[in-house]
Every structure is written in C-alpha cells, then in structure tokens.
Amino acid sequence: MRPLSAAALLVLAGCATPCPDAAPERATARYVCADGARLEVTFDRAAGRAFVSEDAGASIALPVQISGSGFRYADEGVEIRGRGDEALWTSPAGEQVSCRVVG
After folding, report:
1. Rounded to whole angstroms, how far apart are CA atoms 52 and 5?
2. Residue 81: which domain range?
3. Are residues 92 and 100 in contact, defined by beta-carbon separation less than 8 angstroms?
4. Is 65 a domain residue?
5. How much is the pTM?
6. Would residue 55 count as lying in a domain?
7. Do 68 and 53 form a contact (C-beta atoms < 8 A)?
8. Which of 22, 61, 90, 100 has CA atoms 20 to 30 A from the CA of 40?
9. What is the pLDDT along the chain (103 residues), one digit of tens a residue?
C-alpha cells in the first residue's frame, strides 16, 4: 500500500470542508442618482430578481438578464445594470440616469 502524498491529503481535506457562499442570497443597496432620485435595490439571488424602489415608492420586480460583466435586471424597458458601486437606471418613464451606491 502506498502512502498518500501531501497534495492528495489536501484535496481530500478540501472535499470534506464545506465552503461558505460567495455572496448572501439577498442583499440591499441604496443608490443616489445624478438627477437626485434615490433607489433602494434588493437583489434576491435565489429568486433571480431585483426589487427596485425609487424615492421610497412602490417596488418594481425585475428578472435577472444575461450580462457580460456586473449585473443586469430588466423587464419591459425598465432596467438596472451596473458593476461595483455604479449603476445605470432606466425608469418606467424611460428616463436613463447614472447612480452610485451611498453608505
């Protein structure tokens, strides 16, 4: 019988150790936009949706869309897309404005 190498032992140990999720299932971000609008966006990974509330109004549910990088949620012309702390919001009125995460 051959002894296991150190590399093989590390691989086996890695399989036995559960890995934590990279990101939470739900996360909320608050944005302020160039036109003064404030958005609260709850990203729900499990549901594949983002829930966007503009200026504390009614929440709009947007399904996830394919994105080359960053995030993109859209439905019927309403869209939020971005990467990092920046986002581009297209409102139900069709107005497009840049937004940035605030503390």
Report:
1. 52
2. 22-101
3. no
4. yes
5. 0.76
6. yes
7. no
8. 22
9. 455 444 443 444 444 444 445 668 999 999 999 999 999 999 999 999 999 999 989 999 999 999 999 999 999 999 999 999 999 999 999 999 999 999 8
